[in-house]
Fold this protein.
Amino acid sequence: MSFNSLLNTTCTIEAKTITQDAAGQKTESWATAEASVKCRLDAATGGLQVEPDAVYEAATHVIFMREPVTTVTTKDHRIDVAGIKYTILLVRNLYGQLNLNHLELLLERNE
C-alpha cells in the first residue's frame, strides 16, 4: 500500500496575516495559503508527545501530508479540514529521512 493511498481527505493550509485597522489596532486574519492538499487526519494517540524543546499534551489530532508547496510553521499557519480549524502544535518534516517524504503535524482542534 502506498502512502498516497492513505491520504483520504483534503485540507487547506491557512496563513496568518497581521494588519492594522483604522484606529491603528493590530488585527489577525487568515487567508488560504494552499488549498486541496491531500492529507490524512487521525485522532492523536494520547499520552505525552515529548520533543527536545517542549511537551505537547494538547494534541487532539495528527495529520499526514506530502510536502506541500507552502512551508508550514506553528506560528504562521493553521489547518482547515472540512471547515474545522486546527492549531499547529508541532511540525515534523520527514522529507528525506528513512525514505519518507511527508509532513506529520500535531494539531489541537479549535473550539
About this structure: DSSP finds one helix and eight strands in the chain.
